[in-house]
Structure formats: C-alpha cells, structure tokens
Amino acid sequence: MKQLSILALSLVLLTTAITAQTTSKALERNAAFTGATTTKKMYHAIYQLDVNDPKIIEKAIRNINNALTDPRLAGKIEIELIAFGGGTDAYMKGSKYEEDLKALIEKGVIVSQCNNTLKERKINRDQLYNFIAIVPSGNGELIIRQAEGWSVIKP
C-alpha cells in the first residue's frame, strides 16, 4: 500500500512538473507573438458611426488613425467612415470634429453620410461640412462594402 501511495505521489509530481513546463512554454510563446502578418496587397475597412456619443465618435476617429499608422498596413489599407442616425451630428457644421474629419480625408479616408438620415431628420446638405460625401443609404453602404470583402467595424 505504501508503494502505491509513493507511486501516486510520484505521478502527481510528474504531472505538475509537465503542466508547469507546458504552461511556461505557452507563456513564452505568447509573449513572443508580435501580431498577425499581412498577406494581402490591400485591406478594406468601413467604420460605422450611428450614435452621437462623443466618446464613441472620438473612439472611431482614434481607431481609424490607429489602423492608418499600423506599420503592417502602411500603404495597404482603404478606409471609409459612414455616419447615419445620431452619428450625423459629428458631420454637422459647428461640431468639434471638423479638423479631425479633414485630417482623416487628407490621409485618404472616405468620410460619408447617409442621405436617408438627412431626409428623415430634415437636415439640409448645407448644414453639413461641405467636404462630406453623401451616399444613398448608410445600411446599403455597409451591405455593399461587406459583400465586397470589407471589414465592418462598429466602435
């Protein structure tokens, strides 16, 4: 019986040592990971902005800038920011986002607005910044872009 107990204890200790060693290797492997690698010539992402919450608007702008400055995506990414619903407020003249939006456009980002929202909210085109593109439907834009293989991102 004593030999069986020693054998059982030995197995527990061996299992613990193997588990610790395996865990240690997994932790080392994870620490060495530097992210996915690009394998395509081009990547496409459309960011959905449908709320007027300043934290979400600022997050969308920050996320887009982060993607644009990711060295793996340099020269390989096309981005669109589509606003509809409450997100339209970011594009209204007098909003605090004018310079941020212009900066995105200067970096090649398409900044677009849903025309259906303008109609529903009775917003005239001249109430928006004049550099905003208008598309027939925000949802239609998302559907088309996703069908074309674009990543749809909702900050």
UniProtKB/TrEMBL annotation:
<dbReference type="Pfam" id="PF02635">
    <property type="entry name" value="DsrE"/>
</dbReference>
<protein>
    <recommendedName>
        <fullName>DsrE/DsrF-like family protein</fullName>
    </recommendedName>
</protein>
<keyword id="KW-0732">Signal</keyword>
<dbReference type="InterPro" id="IPR027396">
    <property type="entry name" value="DsrEFH-like"/>
</dbReference>
<dbReference type="InterPro" id="IPR003787">
    <property type="entry name" value="Sulphur_relay_DsrE/F-like"/>
</dbReference>
<feature type="signal peptide">
    <location>
        <begin position="1"/>
        <end position="20"/>
    </location>
</feature>
